[in-house]
């Protein structure tokens, strides 16, 4: 209840600042937040087209998150658990990690076309590198005493992965996904402005071109709400799956 109150206060502060700035500037570029909220509700209730944009964007970002996560788990575990693999591929992976992933977009366009696949691939690539680094570091931080205790029981490689390594990475995976949501939506916005006819990024840019700033801000609010909903869902899943992380946390 206390956390909810803090979030409500934070939202109120943001809208209060927005309202004050709209009065000070007195420009169409920054409309009144109350009018923007009314337009947002009107769009969601009366426009079927906006729901198509929402579903398309949600499909792209969710599939990108899923693919990035699925591929990062085995790679992160291998790099963290096997010193031999880390020796031969660790430096190459670190080098690729430092490259801004947006530069891969033209490559994806050439290889996968200008449709959904290239947009999804870019989001998945960003998440893949971020999560792999975090999973690798989590695996490296597992103490040798823990490994020794399960090896005494003659556990196989897969049993060690299942009962020691993977549980140690779960919380890190959720943390990485949550921290990458903002970047994922930013990349979604960028990619939806390239040869696209659907998605909230496309819709926002079209509203900007028409100087329809109220609808543009309404669409931005919808995109922000989607991000908050996904963040809340991942927080809920983390609390359910990684219960040990929150045992000593006070509500």
TrEMBL record:
<dbReference type="GO" id="GO:0055085">
    <property type="term" value="P:transmembrane transport"/>
</dbReference>
<keyword id="KW-1133">Transmembrane helix</keyword>
<feature type="transmembrane region" description="Helical">
    <location>
        <begin position="50"/>
        <end position="81"/>
    </location>
</feature>
<keyword id="KW-0812">Transmembrane</keyword>
<keyword id="KW-0472">Membrane</keyword>
<dbReference type="Pfam" id="PF00528">
    <property type="entry name" value="BPD_transp_1"/>
</dbReference>
<comment type="similarity">
    <text>Belongs to the binding-protein-dependent transport system permease family.</text>
</comment>
<feature type="transmembrane region" description="Helical">
    <location>
        <begin position="216"/>
        <end position="237"/>
    </location>
</feature>
<feature type="domain" description="ABC transmembrane type-1">
    <location>
        <begin position="54"/>
        <end position="234"/>
    </location>
</feature>
<feature type="transmembrane region" description="Helical">
    <location>
        <begin position="93"/>
        <end position="114"/>
    </location>
</feature>
<keyword id="KW-1003">Cell membrane</keyword>
<dbReference type="GO" id="GO:0005886">
    <property type="term" value="C:plasma membrane"/>
</dbReference>
<dbReference type="InterPro" id="IPR035906">
    <property type="entry name" value="MetI-like_sf"/>
</dbReference>
<feature type="transmembrane region" description="Helical">
    <location>
        <begin position="7"/>
        <end position="25"/>
    </location>
</feature>
<protein>
    <submittedName>
        <fullName>ABC transporter, permease protein</fullName>
    </submittedName>
</protein>
<keyword id="KW-0813">Transport</keyword>
<dbReference type="InterPro" id="IPR000515">
    <property type="entry name" value="MetI-like"/>
</dbReference>
């Amino acid at each position: 209840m206390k956390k909810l109150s803090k979030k409500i206060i934070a939202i109120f502060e943001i809208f209060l600042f927005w309202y004050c700035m709209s009065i000070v500037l007195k420009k169409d570029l920054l409309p009144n937040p109350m009018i923007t909220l009314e337009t947002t509700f009107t769009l969601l209730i009366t426009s079927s087209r906006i729901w198509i944009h929402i579903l398309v964007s949600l499909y792209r970002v969710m599939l990108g998150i899923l693919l990035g996560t699925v591929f990062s788990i085995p790679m992160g575990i291998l790099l963290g658990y096997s010193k031999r693999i880390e020796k031969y591929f660790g430096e190459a992976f670190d080098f690729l990690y430092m490259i801004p992933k947006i530069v891969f977009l033209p490559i994806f366009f050439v290889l996968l076309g200008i449709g959904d696949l290239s947009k999804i691939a870019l989001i998945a690539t960003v998440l893949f590198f971020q999560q792999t680094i975090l999973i690798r570091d989590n695996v490296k931080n597992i103490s040798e005493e823990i490994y020794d205790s399960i090896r005494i029981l003659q556990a196989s490689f897969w049993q060690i992965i299942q009962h020691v390594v993977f549980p140690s990475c779960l919380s890190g995976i959720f943390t990485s996904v949550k921290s990458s949501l903002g970047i994922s939506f930013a990349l979604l916005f960028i990619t939806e402005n390239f040869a696209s006819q659907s998605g909230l990024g496309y819709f926002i840019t079209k509203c900007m071109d028409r100087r329809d700033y109220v609808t543009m801000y309404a669409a931005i609010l919808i995109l922000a709400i989607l991000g908050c909903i996904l963040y809340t869902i991942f927080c809920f899943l983390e609390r359910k799956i990684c219960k040990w992380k929150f045992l000593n946390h006070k509500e």
